[in-house]
Design a protein that fits this description.
Blueprint: H1 2-16, H2 25-82, H3 85-96
Family: Belongs to the FtsL family.
Function: Essential cell division protein. May link together the upstream cell division proteins, which are predominantly cytoplasmic, with the downstream cell division proteins, which are predominantly periplasmic.
Subcellular location: Cell inner membrane; Cell membrane
Length: about 110
């Protein structure tokens, strides 16, 4: 009985429709729409995955940057400590045996 109704519907549709309706095109169109929906869904999944991978890489690079910034700050502090006058005087005294001359050791030379 349902086949009769479908055939009746198709004949009335052909009679009332201003254009000739090709029933063979509908399965192709529906299949095409289904494939487009599947491709769109796959695109969303791939885009989401790539976004997560790139976000993980960004977090790793930011962590490395923070470590390098910390190390750079420590190096700047060490550089400042190495170039202080007190440090230079200490090294001159210990390694080179240098000292500030006593008043009696100073000799003034006039031109």
């Amino acid at each position: 009985m349902s086949m009769d109704r479908i055939e009746q519907w198709a004949t009335t549709l052909r009679a009332e429709w201003p254009f000739r309706l090709r029933l063979r095109a509908w399965p192709v169109a529906i299949s095409l729409l289904f494939l487009l929906c599947m491709a769109s869904g796959l695109g969303v999944v791939v885009t989401t995955h790539m976004t997560r991978v790139q976000f993980a890489q960004l977090q790793q690079l930011e962590q490395e940057e923070n470590q390098l910034q910390t190390e750079w700050g420590q190096l700047l502090l060490e550089e400042g400590a190495w170039s202080t006058p007190a440090r230079i005087e200490q090294i001159a005294t210990e390694r080179l045996g240098m000292r500030i001359p006593d008043v009696h050791d100073v000799e003034v030379i006039r031109p």
